[in-house]
Amino acid sequence: xxxxxxKYGGSSVADAAKLGQxxxxxxxxxxxxIDIAVVVSAMGKTTDELxxxxxxxxxxxxxxxxxxxxxxxxxxxxxxxxxxxxARGLQAVSLTGSQAGIITxxxxxxxxxxEVRPFRVQDEMAKGKVVIIGGFQGVSYKRDITTxxxxxxxxxxxxxxxxxxxxxxxxxSDVDGVYSADPxxxxxxxxxxxxxxxxMQEMSMAGAKVLHANAVQFAKEKNIAIYARSxxxxxxxxxxxxxxxxxxxxxxxxxxxxxxxxxxxxGKNAQVLFKQAAEFLENEQVPIKEVNVAGTTTSDKxxxxxxxxxxxxxxxxxxxxxxxxxxxxxxxxxxADLAALSLIGEGLNRNNLPLLDALExxxxxxxxxxxxxxxxxxISLLVPRDQIEKSVQLCHTQWVAEDxxxxxxxx
Length: 411
Known about the structure:
By secondary structure, the protein is of the alpha/beta class. It folds into two domains: 3-174, Acetylglutamate kinase-like (Carbamate kinase); 254-401, 2-Layer Sandwich (VC0802-like), CATH 3.30.2130. The chain is built from eleven helices and 20 strands. The strands form four sheets. Strands 3-6-2-1-9-13-14-12 form an eight-stranded mixed β-sheet, with helices on both faces. Helix 1 crosses helix 3 (63-87), helix 6 (197-205) packs antiparallel against helix 7 and helix 8 (270-283) runs antiparallel to helix 9. The longest helix has 25 residues, at 63-87. It is globular and about 70 Å long. The N and C termini lie far apart (54 Å). Mean pLDDT is 90; it is low at 405-411.
């Protein structure tokens, strides 16, 4: 029998009426004799409300207790959807991430899935039941409840699809797939019918909120196609899968991340201080990226180090930042109020033209560039946070909206 995994999130699970609509959709599939596992996110703004509640109690709540708190949101959704299916005459059972066999490391708030043991899911499916799983959560080998970071329900769905050897993984939300930019920022954002795993992963890591980067990594490793669709407006979709190299060349999307800070260490012992800072942040479970270290010896007075932290979903960042500053002392500086603008696509660094054109475009519009990072699929520029939306609009119009993203070796 065909097996598929579906995930419903965003405003598609915002209230009881929409959960009823989802139950109707699932019932239609079940009539086709398809085995279905459904992963759900928390309803509406539940996670944001729980975070706000925690911050009323503590400026730096313990990560373990945050996981205990935030995992309740998905449990509400999964039990209500199971009830809705029962009301329609279908057999259904709701399972937490731990009951579904989602095993993670012991890192709280951004745990990594290390294994999926779907025996309970398979047993319930064999009985003809629709299995509803709370996304975003798992259990560590220490038997603690863990969460997978914002958007982690995507990872739950893809990891489960891989473990069940599902035919496909369908990700449903309130939008009909992936766009070339955030439509609320760029009015001329274009729907993208097809994306490669690397391009989608770079988009996710650079701030796009449609799919979680870890979910794309799972899909890439297991060669599982992801279908990103609207829950209630069928028609268009975006398929993320393995594409032939060079099939689509050039800038495909312009993505932004609005809350980043750069930490700089200058002068003698910069390398040693960087190691101390990185170790402290690792203990605080704060990931760092875009690392740059210059200078070859610990006595080199011109040595420098810098890295970037995405601060949006770090609980108690101000307190962590203050502690880090006191530990390192005057050599450390924080560049706050920054945002990251990223051009995403294949073959962007075959030559320097896209980067040079981006720098020229922003300079013509008096937008300073405060940092540059490149990969095979991404060019990222640090700009002032208050100019990020304008930067996205300019770059999107330049490369994507007018079909000018195609890279050629000759101009």
